[in-house]
Design a protein that fits this description.
globular, Rossmann fold, about 230 residues, four-stranded antiparallel sheet, six-stranded mixed sheet, alpha/beta, 8 helices
Length: about 230
Amino acid sequence: MIRIDSLTLAYNERTILDRASLHLKAGELCALVGRNGAGKSTLIRAITSSDGIKLCGEPLAKLSAERLAQSVAIVTTETIRVANLRVRDVVAMGRAPYTNWVGHLQEIDRQIVDEALDMVGMKEFAERDTTTLSDGELQRAMIARAIAQQTPIIVLDEPCAYLDIPTRFEVCRLLADLAHKEGKCILFSTHDIDSALPVCDSFAIIENHTLLKVDAAKASIEIERLFRR
């Protein structure tokens, strides 16, 4: 699903990753971890913009904008709080790669939006104004938008940021369900290792310009060795 081979990334003349590789398959939930400033967000952005990356077996450089939008959904740290914008409208944005040229939703699109809202437990919030949502509710709405996009890959940048501890666990469990029950390939960056450990299949660790992938059983030991010494 996601294949990164010998990727080198730099930001403001500072090397972030040096010939890094990472392979993730369908049904896998992987947490991307590292120190502050290690380059987690940079790598998340690179997944839809850099050479040396394959998505669903196709080189990124050969994917059209439409095909890319049908292959990977991105959930950034930016949230949408706009007066008079309903939760349903936010989730419906995920249908943009499939709607006609004027952007009109068909019945099948509305059905997919309803199903996405239901999957994240937000169906009863569908008509709510986005400005009335808590941080956790809004994060669920953003994930529902990614689900409505119907991509095999979902990539999220710090989906647990600013959430209280119980909500962090809820979001991580939701991501695990999407990966394990829906067969999605999901990569998300996080500082909250404790919430990720019980549900993730693997961890991708950025340290000293390298990217190390370890399975969940070994992640705690490896993270302890690298970051808590």
